[in-house]
Specification:
33-stranded mixed beta sheet, globular, mainly beta, five-stranded mixed beta sheet
Length: 899
Amino acid sequence: MSAASIAIGTAQVQAATAEEDAGAIIVTGTRPIAESEASALEVQKQSDSLVTVAASDSVGRLPDQNIAQATSRLPGVSVERDQGQARYINLRGAPKTWTTLSFDGINVVSPEGRDARFDSIPSAIAGKIIVSKAVTPDMPGETVAGNVNIITRSAFDFDGVHIAGKAGMGLAELGDKKEYEGALVVSNRFKVGEGELGVLLSGSYYERNMITDNFETDYERVTRDARPGNGTRFWAHEAENKLYRLTRKNWSVSGRLDYKPDDRNSISLRSIYTIFTDDEARDNYRFDLDDREADLSNSLAACTVTPNSAPPTSGYADVCIGNTPQQGTVYGIDIRQRSTLRAFRQSVFTNTLAGDHEFAHGWKLSWLANYTQSKDDRSVVGEATWDSPSTRNLRPTVSYDFSNPNLSRLTLYRTLQLANPTRYMAGAQVTDVDSFAKPLSGFTVLDAVDTTNAYTARLVLARELDNATLKAGVQYDRRTKVADEQQITLSAAQAATIMPTDYNQFSTDQKFLGEIPMGYTFHYFDTDRMRAASKAAQAAFAFAPNLSNNYNVREEVLAAFLMGTMRYDWGSVVGGVRVEHIKNRGTAVGTIGTVTGPITAEATQTLAFPSLHINYNVDDTKKLRLSFNSGAARADYDQLRPNVVVNDSNETISGGNPTIKPERAYGVDAYFEWYLRPQGYLMIGTFYKKVEDFLYTSSRTFGSSALNSSGIDRSGYTFSGLVNGGSGRIYGLEAAAQLQLEPWTESLGLPNFMGGFGVSANLTLNNSKVSLPGRSIRLPGTSDFVYNIGGYYEKYGLSLRLQYQNRSKWLDTVGTLADAGDTYWDSDDELDFSARYALTKNFEIYFDASNLLNHPGRRFSDPASLLTASGTPTSSITSQTIEWERFGRRYTGGIRFNF
């Protein structure tokens, strides 16, 4: 039997023989799921390396709003969310810094840096998303776990005039907030002499208004808690609620010109501009539980627990009065309230001029030039701070209960001073937190913009032989990131000249829009008054640069690669090597003791990245893939900045680390793929990566004389910042299936309508470990398992899909015992539903429902591994919630059109 062919342009899958015709799946615009799967599987099958593909349907659409969410449906892909939106991508459990982002094969620096943010890129611009999990020599060496390549649409994807779009609106359940979305694509092809010109323009808009329920609790090891059992006690030094009102928007505008003078030459000009804005009003109530930690006795002796409602201490970390880390009461503590209005904006503006040319005797030449500007605007319109007065009986007494990991229960009381002036007790319960005195203590305005300008030039020469393709190329990248941060900081007296000092004159009477039970009520701050205060502050006071946060880092990479693809009757072999010479130069302001001044640092390195890919065709439908690859994840630009702060009083050093070594990874992959006829897919595979020089943030002895001066030896100071750890590994298993019932309904004796059912599922199992001084940890971002399972039905113009995603807990940050250990995100899942119905061949209506389970996101601290390494028994240790948030369900509907 010959292989089934897929004509993507006509949106039709057909068999090549009469025998196959009976079981063929005919896919038109009314079969969007089958159509996009067919397109994706064909690209995947024809690839000479290990890839996974998400393809748009014939109308040019993906089922999710941003690239992160769309990619998360694929095997081996998990996401990290922010405010409920998929943002970062972990490929096969690897850290998010190991995943690179590309547009049409050009690596793009995210506005944040090497942590590629995918939520700022709307899926509307993509024709396909190709996830490469095994690196080839023509890909940059910084691609370690893989690359997410967004293939933009071209006018040559369509026969002629093409117009498609959508318009819809929806509801966010939490807070009863609205959503709006729209997209439009227009393209055409024109005869130009003997050639043809293709023009495509597209734009998209998505607005999401939302409310977030949130509480956070920060734990610490209390040095004055010295009584027996203190080794396993970690106390909440701060409990807070962050109450968000958000408006997030995604915009995109793109244009593409493709000129084909003949069938051997093409020139393309592509431009994409994406904007992500995040307008955030945050009411933050922070209860400073360790406000009077110094009152606590540091006695080593055991004590008899005696409940005391008027203790000689504030009650913080006082086990003698019956307080525990989970439950207790503290008396007369500080409220540190922050009213913050942010106006974040991230943008990517990328422009590419590229050409492909074929010459006689099998020679090919491709070239491109790219300029990309990424901006990360972290500006804060205004932040007002309100703090309790120093008089303790004007402060609240707080009873806390953290025994439920999904609830931070705080009960507020008046504080009564007893005849003994050092003792206090709880008075009447208070429900309105804003009835406590909290005078204005300060006001800030932040203007902070990070700008990255990147230039890329690439030239690739290839020679097609009878059974081989040889390819050689050179590439030059220059990226410069400039952080420019300035701030207006006002004291209480200065702030009083621009705004009220009483919070109740700065707030509104709007009712609470969330659902989280806090144990008290509050009043939202007035965003209009905040903007007015910010405007007044800027008129009366000058911005001052935040010198310690400003830097200029330049990275230059000169690369050359050589690779060959050998084709045999049984498959192909792709092998080669890439060599990169990297030069970093950074300037910043540093402080060493009492001296502050500019610092410049430079570093160079040359790295080689060999790789080999073997693709064996068992038959026309089955493939075995084996690959060996290597890569290096370099530190982010802000981590390479040379600003350093040396505090001789505290004997500490902090700042960037321009001489840090990159993380090196060497991997092997072995996969079996079965492309079922006429459509379907089964896959199972295993992977292994060895890791060297793991990057993590920690504190350690500086151990160098580089900062010694004026007779001061600073080699023994404590350095806090990015450091290299030891070696490690990550390995795992992947499996995936995509099946439709259509080809087998007749042989199974099923009615025709049953042919519309299909299923897709994938599973990834991971195991990772890296060594740190004195212990081992898992790699950040690695879940033990990740899986997706979905069912769909599409027939008679109706298309329905139900999709479930789940990932187990993963390491977020590497911690110390002083801050209660490592932090993890708990398991995360999401259930989504979508429905479409074709009214005519040109119009369809749609309905999407997201986050139907409405499960919370939970981050927690776990000191167990650190305690085990120190020899402390951990049988009584439980995880402690440090962040909890929930966002509500979302529903959107509208109409799509296609001409």
